[in-house]
Amino acid sequence: AFMPFPLTMASTPGSVTWTMALSPLSSAPALSDTQDGSGNQAFLVEGPVALTIRHSAPGSIAVMFTTAAGSDGLFSDSGPVDQTVRIDAGAGVLTIHSADSWTVVQKRIQ
After folding, report:
1. For residue 24, with 0-12 CB atoms within 10 Å meaning exposed, 13-18 middle and 19 or more buried, which class applies?
2. Which of 23, 107, 9, 5 is nearest to 63 (CA)?
3. Is 45 within 8 Å of 94 (Cβ atoms)?
4. Contact status, residue 85 vs residue 75, Cβ threshold 8 Å
């Protein structure tokens, strides 16, 4: 099974109640033309597109694109980022790993 983010659980001694919901990748939201967000998130993307990722915080950000054929680490960086990457033809899941706020601008490529 594919999980776009590592599953981390922590507890303290005593009684802890938690739940976990798993959903099919097809239920992930489609990436909008301008997507603002924060934290770890996943979006459906259909190429070919150019994605400009902006991150102004001092923390780190990592961006991956996963298809049925495998995963591609698009980039990983710390601090302010203004990076454009290309996603060629095909559908997949874009995952963003960051504790901070970020923006992704999507532009269709002809």
Report:
1. exposed
2. 5
3. yes
4. yes
Between the alpha carbon of residue 72 and those of residues 11, 21, 32, 48, 65, the distances in Å are 33, 26, 21, 15, 5
Q: What is the pLDDT of residues 11-55, one digit of tens each?
A: 566 666 767 777 777 788 999 999 999 999 999 999 999 999 999
Please provide the size of the chain in residues. Answer: 110
Beta bridge pairs of residue 87: 49
pTM across the whole model: 0.79
CA dihedral 51, 35, 91, 53 (to 10 degrees): 30
Question: Which of 8, 99, 6, 94 has its CA nearest to residue 60?
Answer: 99
CA distance 94 to 72: 10
Q: Quick one: three-class SS letters along 17-66?
A: CCCCCCCCHHHCCECCCEEEEECCEEEEEEEEEEEEEEECCCCEEEEEEE
